[in-house]
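Meet today's protein:

…
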Amino acid sequence: MPSRCSWKRRQPIDTFGMPCPNLADFDGDGDFDIVCGEFIDKFTYFENTGTRTEPRYAAGRRLTHEGQPIACICA
């Protein structure tokens, strides 16, 4: 079942399971983007298309490398 979190009561951010959000400037443009680790093994990236003080997040997209989803392997 999808989990939802919201930022400043705006549109919910959809991820699967129990998300683990991480805020940082992942794309180097000076604002905070979000990467969520999901329930089992995938990562979803939400680009901040707003500003550092007025964030707006694009729809999430799975992080991939060479066409394959980036996955967390936990031992």
About this structure: The radius of gyration is 12 Å.
